[in-house]
Amino acid sequence: MKLKKKISGKLIFNILVVFLCLFIIFYFFYSENGLNDLLHSSIQISVLWILAAIGFQLLYMFIEAFIIYYFIKADYANFTFRDAVKVSFVGLFWCAVTPSSTGGQPMQIYLLHSMGIDIGYSTSRLLQKFLVYQVVLTSISIMAFLYKLDYFINAMSSPIIVIFIIVGFGSQLIITGALMLVSFKPIITKKFIFFIAKILSKIKLLKNIDKKTSHIQKQLDLFHESNKTLYKHKKALAITAILTFIQFIAMFTVPYCVYRSLGLNEATPLDMISSQAFVNLVSGMIPIPGASGAAELGFTAFFNGFFTPETLKSATLIWRMINYYGVVICTAPFAYITNGKTRGAKIEKTIEDEFSKENNK
């Protein structure tokens, strides 16, 4: 008797994403005016500018590690920068391979817990870090839009791009607003969550509402207690915001280096940084790992005016290899620390169990 193996929807989704990524790489490499054509043309690619692009991407990654180190070190003296690099790279990897970057923080919380750091503390710190991240990203996006207003309006000729912009910008504002509400208005947050819980209970999507809401309330109380301590240190928040700003500028400079590597020099770094900020805004909330497809579409739409027809596809692929695929390859060795799929359920259970322990103290 043969055993039938059940194929999960998650497996099918992952296979489709892999095929999508391979198709995109194949298209930008072998299609007309793709990277293959560029390599056989008279255009010379500057290795120094490519190395500069890689350097800026690595700077982004190590600033990420330093921010985590800065957040945790104040209360955990034994937490080293090496530990922060592990936590950072684990987060970058799982963000890259999960839809809408949702897998990074749970894996980081699990890893920090294995290092002896309380679940409530690490959750609070990572959420506060994410709040700063969102505020800085939204601020840069707004400044970029105002700086290049005419250019972006012209780039929005496609209805698809317009939809992406509305969804991307709207999502960023909603997430930023929700995080600020959670951080600064605990009473309003509780009322809203309980209101949603009651609705879900009435339509039979949530069982044991009293137990669930009590658990949520305890978690929120724990989170806000941790918040009070951090927000007293305004200097720490200011330093984090500055470091996050530098981090984004480093990542947004990668396209400029790619641009210069192809022998182009008319656009300014500020033009490129503004365009990349908008690409991130448009593609950031697409529920596909790495926003595959949306990121490339956004890049070609907003950088079309800077690159020539002979270099645009090549630039898109080179940028993507550095900004996404290179990050996945660089951080993949750290994935063994959390052991991916086999520990997914354990991670969720560990977080839930630890919250329960802390709440019952």
Outline the secondary-structure elements.
Layout (H helix, E strand, L loop, with lengths): L8 H22 L4 H5 L7 H27 L7 H17 L6 H11 L4 H29 L1 H7 L3 H26 L1 H17 L6 H23 L2 H19 L1 H8 L7 H15 L10 H9 L9 H20 L8 H20 L2
Protein architecture, described:
- By secondary structure, the chain is mainly alpha-helical.
- It has one domain (44-359).
- The protein contains 16 helices and no strands.
- It has helices at 9-30, 35-39, 47-73, 81-97, 104-114, 119-147, 149-155, 159-184, 186-202, 209-231, 234-252, 254-261, 269-283, 294-302, 312-331, 340-359.
- α6 crosses α8 (159-184).
- The longest helix is centred in the middle third of the chain and has 29 residues, at 119-147.
**Structural class estimated from helices and strands:** mainly alpha
Continuous helix count: 16
Helix-strand pattern:
HHHHHHHHHHHHHHHH
Helix content: over 70%
Radius of gyration: 22 Å
In the predicted model, the low-confidence regions spanning at least 5 consecutive residues are: 340-352
Q: What average pLDDT do the residues reach?
A: 80
The geometry reads as globular
Describe the sheet with the most strands.
Answer: none
Distance between the termini: 52 Å
Number of strands: 0
- The structural domain count equals 1
Query: How much of the residues is beta strand, in percent?
Result: under 5%
Task: Name its key features.
16 helices; 361 residues; mainly alpha
Summarize the structure.
The protein is built from 16 helices and no strands. The chain has 361 residues and is mainly alpha-helical.
